[in-house]
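I am still getting used to backbone structure tokens and would like to learn alongside you. Label the sequence line and the structure token line clearly, so we can match residues to local backbone shapes. Go ahead whenever you are ready, and we will take it from there:
>
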Amino acid sequence: MAGAKDKIFKWLSLKTLPGECVTLAIGAFGGLLFTFLHIPGGAMSGSVIAVALTTVYARPTPLGGPLRVLALSTMGMAIGTVVGPDTFANMAAYPGSMALMALCVVLMTLASTAVWTLLMGWPPAMALLSSVPGSMSYILSVSMSLGADAAKVAVVQMSRVIFLVTVLPFIVVWESGGQHAALAQTAVDPLSVIAPTLAIGIVTGAILTRVGMGGGMLFGALAASGVIHYLGYGEGRAPGWVLVGGQILLGSWVGTRFVGFDWRLFGKICIGTTASVGAAMGVSVLFAMTVSTFFDVSFGTTLMAYAPGGQDAMMILALSLGVDPIFVSAHHLARYFLINLTLPFIIARMQRASGAGNSEDAA
């Protein structure tokens, strides 16, 4: 979601401000409605769905740079407030779990690719590009050079976002016996702590974003808040209004990504999309169960960590569902680097192999 080259620091335009307020109002309605209905992760999923559905009939105004910075840094700060001396109790499980996560990413991609090639008859290049769990901006930029149908690839990649933010919270809650786990009740940070922590987080996130780190604003704010709370300068959690407001901001932003989304094309390839995402989720569930069994980490935590993509959304949902957001964050960051370090080599090899036959794949 948060690409380093996404003009995230472009200042707010007064021309778009009224439209952005309307978008936020729609997102707030959906987020608060889902929260009122006690839907797991409702503030996030409700705002995403409300704004995304609006794109069927209208073009909601995308949020400008300042609001996106506020959304990402607010949620990063909120996640960082859970850091304390006992936060890294699962640290011993990280090396083994991350090694399995790397294998899980490979198998998820292969399972989803198999669905597209065997069930839908898609060319291998397009099937692979549709199946990689993450790095969507890069994937779309190379899809056309490989002769793949970029529109179909985009529809599949975006559909995964809706699936993850709406279905995954129910799986986590169902597995826990129907109980929506809540974070341990602690003191709440006062505004005198929240404001400077948020400011430091924005500066840290800006630096990481400028050096090209994907999700830099979120991870920067998380790191800054985590250090502040680990050292004891902040001893509470983010207030509820900060959590709900941040999720609505981020969810509204994600929802506007569906502007121009080809819903008719989605309907045509709905079976393949459902099957491919289901195959990837099936692999992640098996790995999550394995890690949960052998490394003594809760299933909900491992499932969020192994989910196919959506690093920002998964970290935020982990916080709202009461699972370990630091464990989830570490694994999604590792997955991000794994994919971005290996994918260019895979793409380069596919480009050499496809050669002049690229045009055939686009058919």
